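Ops channel
N.P.: pipeline sanity check, posting one input/output pair.
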């Protein structure tokens, strides 16, 4: 039986090495919410809600997540008994939506559970791999010279797949230049819902560039994506559209996509991410693990998740050094030849939060007690 005796929220900042731009938002300084929980015996778990300042990606912001965690989720779980993550999720179930906020607290519970049992979260989830393969994702870079320089840099580091953000006006020309320079590199694009169904003919132009997939092409529903998928040779991958395992099941039933991006923060936590994995795996649908510019705690959770057998496409879980000069965990999360080690032999998430670094970057704290 577990019971959270103390819980706290820590808004923590970090700055991206390279400023990032997609069709939906631009960012440089990040503010994520760390969740620390402690049970009656003094065991500790850490989670991270990788929140954004603006509501342009999936609606939540750092401010809304702070509010939901402080005023609803903490009062629902602190002091209440639970034994499994399913039971903890049931305590949180009255809160609808707000998946990023929920994922931060749920992640802390997985970490606590793993540490209490001396098992890694990867092990608790059913992970089978000792290392995962990762590609890299680049924001919109209108300057081709700069874009080529970044692609060269990360290919030299051994990453095996290139993902580019695209937007109307910064799409086919960019792909033409990138394909001319890198004819055989595994390449995919992410539109972050920048197009509409009336752009179908234009999107057919993407087919000539031999893309692994086009991610989230439309600002439209699953039916519109199903129609577009029938018109394209390039597989569609859905990301923002899928906020639960049930959404993924519906999208596959409709034929809205042929690939699924699994992001635990978007889906509300690791439990729902594993359910999504299981649905896709049963249908032979390839999946990959997405990222949210995660700090080390959420990045470690992604490593655990991506160690499940259905993650057959290299994901976005690059080493921390691609994003930050200094991360908040030790050992650091690094990639070698595009591969990252899954910390299966260490309990919990397996990468220790460094309290001094967290304290130095903390903007505000909220504490709750049973
Ligand atoms: Mg995406």
């Amino acid at each position: 039986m577990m019971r959270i005796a103390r819980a706290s929220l820590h808004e923590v900042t970090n700055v991206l090495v390279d400023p990032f731009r997609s069709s939906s938002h631009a960012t440089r300084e990040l503010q994520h919410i760390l969740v620390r929980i402690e049970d009656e015996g003094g065991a500790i778990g850490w989670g991270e809600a990788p929140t954004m300042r603006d509501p342009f990606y999936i609606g939540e912001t750092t401010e809304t997540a702070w509010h939901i965690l402080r005023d609803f989720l903490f009062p629902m779980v602190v002091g209440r008994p639970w034994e499994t993550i399913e039971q903890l999720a049931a305590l949180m179930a009255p809160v609808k939506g707000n998946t990023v906020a929920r994922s931060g607290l749920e992640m802390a519970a997985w970490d606590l559970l793993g540490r209490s049992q001396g098992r890694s979260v990867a092990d608790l989830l059913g992970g089978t791999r000792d290392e995962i393969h990762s590609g890299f994702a680049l924001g919109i870079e209108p300057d081709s010279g700069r874009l080529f320089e970044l692609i060269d840099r990360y290919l030299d580091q051994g990453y095996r797949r290139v993902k580019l953000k695209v937007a109307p006006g910064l799409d086919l020309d960019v792909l033409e230049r990138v394909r001319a320079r890198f004819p055989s590199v595994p390449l995919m694009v992410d539109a972050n819902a920048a197009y509409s169904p009336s752009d179908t003919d234009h999107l057919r132009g993407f087919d000539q560039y031999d893309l692994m997939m086009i991610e989230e092409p439309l600002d439209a529903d699953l039916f519109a994506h199903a129609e577009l998928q029938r018109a394209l040779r390039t597989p569609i991958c859905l990301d923002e559209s899928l906020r639960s395992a049930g959404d993924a099941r519906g999208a596959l039933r409709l034929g809205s996509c042929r690939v699924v991006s699994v992001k635990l923060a978007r889906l509300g936590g690791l439990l729902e991410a594993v359910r999504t994995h299981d649905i896709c795996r049963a249908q032979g649908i390839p999946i990959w693990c997405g990222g949210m510019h995660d700090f080390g705690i959420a990045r470690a959770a992604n490593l655990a998740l991506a160690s499940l057998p259905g993650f057959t496409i290299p994901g976005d879980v690059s080493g921390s050094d691609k994003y930050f000069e200094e991360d908040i965990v030790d050992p650091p999360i690094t990639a070698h030849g595009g591969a990252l080690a899954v910390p299966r032999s260490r309990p919990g998430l397996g990468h220790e939060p460094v309290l001094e670094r967290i304290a130095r970057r903390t903007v505000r704290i909220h504490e709750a007690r049973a």
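N.P.: looks fine end to end. The chain has a mean pLDDT of 96.
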